[in-house]
Amino acid sequence: MDLKRVYIFVNKEHNQPLAQQAADFLRAHQIKVDFLNSPEELSSADMLLSFGGDGTLLQCARQAAPKQIPVFGINCGTLGFLASCEKEAVISSLEQVLKGAFTLHTRSLLQAHVTQPQQEAQDFLAFNDCVLHAATPRAFILQAQWNQTQMPSYYGDGVVVSTPTGSTAYSLAAGGPIVEPSVDVLVVTPICPHSLHQRPIVLPANGTLTLTPSLKYKEDTVLLSLDGQTHLSLSAGGQVEISRSTHTVELVGLPGRDFFTNLHRKLSWGNLEC
User: For 203-257, what is each residue's pLDDT tens digit?
Assistant: First the structure.
């Protein structure tokens, strides 16, 4: 990768000094660096540096995907499962990038097509997951179709529809399977199902899952949450069509931070001492 222009987004003020160090390092190597006030300001560049936690990287990934800009995540948060490096190693990690000692990992995204009565249809991107859940703690029915074929309805607090990348986030916490990120699937995980027979299901990513809430009371509301950051209320008669997006995003990977190593270090997968 020939780095000529890099954008930097910093989620919090206290991470600004570290981001400035990275900017100074890159500028010393004749690379043009600009800071973004918001990921939405992103334009053409060779790389986007995300200073923050996984939530910050999700914001950056959704903006970078349509523009085909690789994302380099610096973990300044708690978990940092998706990050390219920890904040203590930012300069040494950037040195590796300049030497070409990195890999670009392509990750899929979801597209949520939302239709509601008397409203224009809306489309959203999600990097981790699309979640349909009740606004109040009350179980509701979700009618489901896969490629226009009727599926059994879900009855409970909602469902999580995740990408392989998102399988280690909310979906995992709700009891879903871990999926290696290169596997081309959608994962559908019920949230607190009111049945002993409803279990997560893995579907091929080249189809469309249609979810339609069936509400018992007029005052009930169902929320669509995308990556836990974008939220939309669904009215009676609304539905969501979820499919694999045509966009993908590339995450910068460095030696020693592969998927299985991160599972062990960050989530204690395979830790016999737990």
Answer: 999 999 999 999 877 777 899 999 999 999 998 889 999 999 999 999 999 998 8
Q: Which two tokens stand for residue 128?
A: 């981790």
Q: Are residues 116 and 229 in the same domain?
A: yes
Range of the domain at 45: 5-102+254-267
Q: Do residues 148 and 238 both lie within one domain?
A: yes
Residues taking part in catalysis:
54
User: In which element (H, E) is residue 140 found?
Assistant: strand 140-146
**Amino acid (one-letter) located at 55:** G
CA distances 235 to 107, 161, 228, 239, Å, are: 32, 20, 19, 9
